[in-house]
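cron nightly-structures :: item 1 of 1
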Amino acid sequence: MERLRVFTILGLMSIVAGCQRNDSGISRPDLSNRKARVVATTGMIADAAREIAGDHIELECLLGPGGDPHKYYPAYSDNAKLAKADLILYNGLELEAKMGEIFEERAKKVRTVAVGNAIPTELLRRPEPGFEGTHDPHIWFDVMLWSKAVEKVRDALIELDPAHADTFGANATKYLDKLKALDAEVRELALKIPADKRVIITAHDAFGYFGRAYGFEVKGLQGTSTATQTGTQSVQELAKLIGSRQIPVIFGETSVPDEGITAVLEAVNSQYPNHRVKLSDARLYSDALGDPGTKGGTYVGMVRHNIRTIVNALAP
């Protein structure tokens, strides 16, 4: 409640003082007769904005179900949405790599916030060899780490529309409590898998934060970006790991084609005829949510789907 009172007071002070600009000098839009227009790049960010702001904003999400932010470049219609936006929320940390220049340009005219900037550098996964200067952008796979990004969304919405600071603060508090409970749920379910069996093989290295937070060893065929190329050496290395350690399942991803992991399956079954590995019955959500109205259509639903899929595949 103390946090909520602070947000409310700050919002009222901004209104009373008539402050119409933020630190970058961008004017606050007049929202007296309309809702704020917010554009989010990913479903995870859009879901947080929706939980916090509800119907007080007009929300657009650029990446739909199964979208790949690593390779995404906005269509003409998406550029129109960005041009009309009062607030742009993106992940940052090079997740939306092809949109960097667009965000830089839009930031001169409209509030443009990278939610990944809320994560202290010491909590980010170190960059992979050859990509020094960047960090793993898949911060949503550690629920408590993602909570910091949610707080960034909350603060951006309050700064944009201080008249609704009370509502945004209250909704954010409820959502953050929900995420805390979700984190505990994931930890409890992970314990159903013996420690030596907690190995996740995926199409690309998106689940590193998940592994670090919940005690899994994670190996991806590609690096943290799907824009990297899959080589024969990577296929052979993964095949050796799977065959020698008798790993039973490779997990497909909803936003990455199966060609690469299919090659790994074939290599394992060819080189280790006494060990059969299979593709998971259900795919993991990695860089995008599922269809609206489905179990994976929200951030909480996505996380629950993933941990239950992993447990069903690896638990004895």
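cron nightly-structures :: done
Residues 2-185 form a domain with the Rossmann fold fold (CATH 3.40.50.1980).
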